[in-house]
Amino acid sequence: MRRKIKITSAIAAALVVLAVGAYFFNEYWIHRYDELIRRHAGVYNLEVELVWSIVYEETYFRAWIIGNDREIGLMQVTPAVAREWGRETGLREFERETAQNLEKFLSDPERNIQVGCWYLEQIRTKYRGFPAERAMTLAAYNAGPSRVDEWTKGEDPAAIGEAQFLDRVAIPSTRAYVSSILSRFRSAKTEGLLSK
To answer: Are 65 and 73 in contact (CB under 8 A)?
Structure first.
């Protein structure tokens, strides 16, 4: 009987240690790029929590992920976006790097977040100040700006609220993507997850 109690106690202690370890590892994992996100979100005047929520949704902070349509890295940046960014910077070094080994370039968390934030800001300019600005920006980031144009056709986009816009999103995976990010964004904002 004593042996059973010792074994049960040892198993319980091991489970507690594993649970605590898993919690702290997860906290490290989801916040290890916070400084990069803060820096580049700041450059492009984006909300840190929004960029963090996009990275969470896109790749769960795995920099090596390559998507089905060849999107690369933390923010799942497409090769076309990276090349456009390379040209826009006017820096030959970046242009050369994006032309030579795009996968390596975009697998670097620093560059991926930089390019992803740049693109997010490029998209956002079209919807800035609209009631559904965040939802439209996220939908355009996921499905393309032309899809957002389709979903707002026949009505002034500046007069469409967030819930109304989400109802118009005709691609279920995009609707789920936008809803999930907005929910995580609001939680991160409310809980002050990134205010450290």
So the answer is: yes
**What's the pTM?**
0.88
**Terminal alpha carbon distance of the chain:** 49
Place of tokens 């809803």: 179
Q: How far apart are alpha carbons 36 and 191 in whole angstroms?
A: 20
Joined tokens for residue 14: 């091991």
State residue 27's pLDDT score: 85
d(CA 72, CA 50): 19
CA distance 163 to 145: 18
Q: Which residues, in sequence order, are CB contacts of 162 under 8 Å at separation 6+?
A: 131, 132, 134, 135, 182
